[in-house]
Amino acid sequence: MAIEETGENPIKNEGDIVTCRKLIRNVATTAGFGMTDVTRIVTAVSELARNVYVHAGSDGVMRWQLLYQPGKIGIQLVFEDYGKGIPDIDQAIEAGFTTAGTMGMGLSGVKRLMDEMHIQSELGIGTTITVAKWGRAK
Amino acid sequence: MNHSHSKYLSNFKNWAEQKRFLDFTEKDVEFLKKLHPFAIEYADSFVDQLYEHLLQFPDTKRFLSDEKTLNRLKLAQKAYFMDLTSGEYGEEYYQSRIKVGIAHQRIGLPPRVYMSTYCYYMQLIIPKIYGNPMFDVETANGVFLALHKIINLDQELAISSYIHAIDEVISRQTEEILEMSTPVIQIWDGVVAAPIIGMLDSGRTQQFMERLLEAIVETNSPVALIDITGVPQIDTATAQHLIDTINAVKLLGSQVIITGVRPVIAQTLVHLGIDLSGIITRPTMASGLKVALDKLNIKVMDNPRA
Ligand SMILES: Nc1ncnc2c1ncn2[C@@H]1O[C@H](COP(=O)(O)OP(=O)(O)OP(=O)(O)O)[C@@H](O)[C@H]1O
Ligand SMILES: [Mg+2]
Questions:
Q1: What is the pLDDT of residues B83-94, one digit of tens each?
Q2: A104 lines ligand 1 (CB under 6 A)
Q3: Could you report the predicted ipTM of this complex, rounded to two decimals?
Q4: With contact defined as beta carbons under 8 Å apart, do A44 and A110 qualify?
Q5: Does A102 contact B203 at a Cβ distance shorter than 8 Å?
Q6: Is the whole-model pTM more than 0.90?
């Protein structure tokens, strides 16, 4: 059966983080990612969705899309919020940097868990974080 | 979605069995094909009349909110009606019927609307069967019965998939409830164990921590095993909650051993840069229990007579 190639899920409350994780676990598994990659991808989803919920101060949305290249399958995830923005992106990615008194390991971890990460942020306008992971096509 | 493991829903192979059960044969297929040209001829007018009818009831009207949706649904309905008599009842047909039930459950359209649609269709098509100069009485009866059978097959599929969709919602909720409650049990004199199933989100952490601390005090246990075999993944928030819990246990003078650390979890923890070096971890609950018993200086002997 054909699977859907793209979709989105709102991030408005803590329950949405759970929904995002479940959704992407399903999508990535059906797309053919192995168990290890699925766990990495879902962990990244958890981090980024929680960041929107905890830090942005606004609603946000997660968009996902499957990507195809010869012999490869990929998944791209975009986390977009309309919140306060990140003043210094380089600093935010540093392991241990946090403005919330938590571990500050989220963004640096996501960078290692995924193959690509791109952060775009403007103060008072919002933040868009795009990540992607590639795997071998089944 | 995977339909093959449902207790309510037949897969395509079992569906052939259902056709046999209903005595739906090639003869019926031939009768339906005879009706097909007329079904095509009147399809547009049927669909128009049906939707005009549906729009009269607030209950169904609310699903037909705007012109665009209405036109889209009409087109789909037309194809659906035309499929009934197409003579092709293979996998594609089966899938299209399954999807209806799932889609209706999702948007909250009650089955009675779906059922009455067929009734309405029958009302419109019966004159085209019995008033048809091309059909003698025997043919008309054959066509009618064949139509009745295929509609019965349709309805069985759509209603089963409808129930199946509800069933999935229920099992998802059950799973969520299970995730909410984490039991803390005493497994040895001096050792309590808490198997965590699902994610340890902040809502649950507080409750879990309280129960674990209570159990430790109540049973006067120097060691607590937290088993994370049932945790699908660990992110920084979960790790933080675990560490907070471990520190709270330490304040009571007891010690935590994390068990059930699967290789993928260990890997993601490394990727996240989370340092658990100060914490005793074990891959299985059994190996964790051994460590606990060692700490308590308890020796478990093999039964020499066994
Ligand atoms: N969507 C966002 N909007 C605004 N600020 C953000 C956003 N995401 C991250 N930040 C900022 O970047 C910092 C680092 O984020 P990171 O995920 O690495 O750590 P953390 O969320 O503080 O803690 P942890 O993820 O380890 O629980 C955050 O403390 C916050 O200041
Ligand atoms: Mg974070």
A1: 999 999 999 999
A2: yes
A3: 0.81
A4: yes
A5: no
A6: no
